[in-house]
Design brief:
about 475 residues, mainly alpha, Amino acid/polyamine transporter I, transport, Amino_acid_permease_CS, amino-acid transport, AA-permease/SLC12A_dom, Amino acid permease
């Protein structure tokens, strides 16, 4: 059975004669660094600034709460992926647990999210390049990045692994250096600085300067900053030791989230007044380093943000192509997308890259209607995916305990209570999104997309069932 297919208790796999299995070209060092660096996205370096401006010092609490939710999701996903490694990851698990329509909905919604995200990350990277090279066209930079990463992913999975290994290494190094400098400054050990104490944490309106509303805005912003964690479970299926790789990645997720996200936010709000306009305008990392008179802080962080954006582009093209390939292998998409050559789903790679570039062109041609509509539709997709993960884990855990307990290499904590707690947390985030004017349209647009995909998936499921019965 192909690793991209669902087991026998699911819909039978339909493959074309040209189909061949994906290779296992990712080494353990690749998977380890993908897991380590996948949590560090451009949203952490730049997007967190607006969250701090809204929540003040309570952003640390917001990231801790959302981080706890993400850790539960990763633990659930890790349990299922270690038991059944598949490049379709949660889409395969949803199909096995709930039905083909659920795998269809979770998989194609995530594919759509990744394709649009590729375009957004390309635009962000292009803006940095045009700042360094005034007069150059943004679209040309995006096209260049698209070609580079498309070719990289077309060649072999080990190329993706190598790019991500070094991208992740640079991001991790940047975060570690920032935390080291920040810790020295907080303790007063950095030359030319004095320990700030709790002045910035309790002054300027206190720890909750904007009350619960500010905390809610910060919480919503922080939830969506954790994107990218799912890639490691997709990549694990093409690694040398998928089960061990997933288990290790999941078990280290807690300290990675705690150190990189919560630790960074704590450093920023301890060293800087949250009211400092530079936090939102320049980003919290640049603002903090400039506050400490670190030379060339702005340009150094621009390089780091560029690396984070390019890393995300590379990972999202990879993830989108593997998700599409897995869906096709299970009879839930156009067969052409499932063609594998040299161990790589090359048509899926090309299609995912093209869709990403079309999104970039729409940002120039139709920024106020079509492109805005696309942005709203992807706004809450990650939450939809997390719900599928939690429901799937509830079902599959019972099945594994009954049929194959030896496959439970990774176990969800306090099952089923923490799974239910995570579902309650996701429901709470949906309610908060509905309350906030800035996120309400995203919730509605994502809901419409999810409903349309669920209906299409159910119709496909019924059609295939009827055709088999004839």
């Amino acid at each position: 059975m192909s690793r991209t297919s669902a087991p026998a208790d699911s819909t039978p796999v339909e493959q074309t004669p040209a189909d061949a299995p994906l290779t296992h070209g990712l080494k353990q060092r690749h998977l380890s660094m993908i897991a380590l660096g996948g949590v560090i996205g451009a949203g952490l370096f730049v997007g967190s600034g607006t969250a701090i401006a809204a929540a003040g010092p309570s952003i640390v609490l917001a990231y801790a709460l959302s981080g706890a939710l993400v850790m539960l999701v990763m633990r659930m996903l890790g349990e299922m992926s270690a038991a059944n490694p598949a490049s379709g990851s949660f889409s395969v698990h949803a199909e096995r647990a709930i039905g083909p329509w659920a795998g269809f909905t979770a998989g194609w919604s995530f594919w759509f999210l990744l394709c649009v995200a590729v375009g957004l990350e390309g635009i962000g990277a292009a803006k940095i390049m045009t700042g360094w090279f005034p007069g150059t066209a943004e679209w040309a930079w995006v096209a260049l990045f698209m070609v580079v990463f498309c070719v990289t992913n077309l060649a072999a999975v080990k190329n993706f692994g190598e790019f991500e290994f070094w991208f992740a290494a640079l991001k991790v190094a940047a975060i570690v250096i920032f935390l080291a400098i920040g810790t020295l400054a907080i303790t007063g050990l950095l030359p030319g600085t004095e320990a700030p104490g709790t002045t910035n944490l309790t002054g300027h309106g206190g720890f909750l300067p904007s009350g619960s509303e500010g905390l809610i805005v910060g919480l919503l912003a922080s939830v969506f900053a954790y994107g990218g964690l799912e890639t490691v479970t997709i990549a694990a299926a093409e690694s040398e030791h998928p089960v061990q790789g997933v288990a290790k990645a999941v078990r280290t997720a807690m300290w990675r989230i705690g150190v990189f996200y919560i630790g960074s936010m704590a450093v920023v709000v301890t060293l800087l007044p949250w009211t400092d306009k530079a936090v939102a305008e320049k980003g919290p990392y640049v603002a903090t380093l400039e506050h400490l008179d670190i030379p060339y802080a702005g340009q150094i962080m621009n390089v780091v943000v560029l690396v984070a954006l390019l890393s995300a582009m590379n990972a999202n093209i990879y993830g989108a192509s593997r998700m599409a390939n897995s869906l096709v292998a299970r009879g839930q998409g156009p067969k052409a997308l499932g063609r594998i050559s040299g161990g790589v789903p090359r048509i899926a790679v090309l299609m995912s890259s093209v869709i990403g570039f079309v999104c970039v062109l729409l940002s120039y041609w139709r920024p106020n209607d079509v492109f805005l509509w696309l942005l709203n539709m992807i706004g809450a997709i990650i939450l939809v995916v997390w719900i599928f993960i939690a429901v799937s884990q509830l079902v599959l855990r019972r099945r594994l305990e009954r049929e194959a307990p030896e496959k439970l290499v990774v176990r969800m904590w306090a099952y089923p209570y923490l799974t239910y707690a995570a579902l309650a947390g996701m429901a709470a985030v949906f309610v908060l999104m509905a309350r906030e004017e800035g996120t309400r349209n995203q919730l509605y647009a994502t809901g419409a997309l999810t409903l349309a995909l669920a209906v299409a998936g159910y119709v496909l499921q019924r059609t295939r069932k009827d055709s088999r019965e004839v």
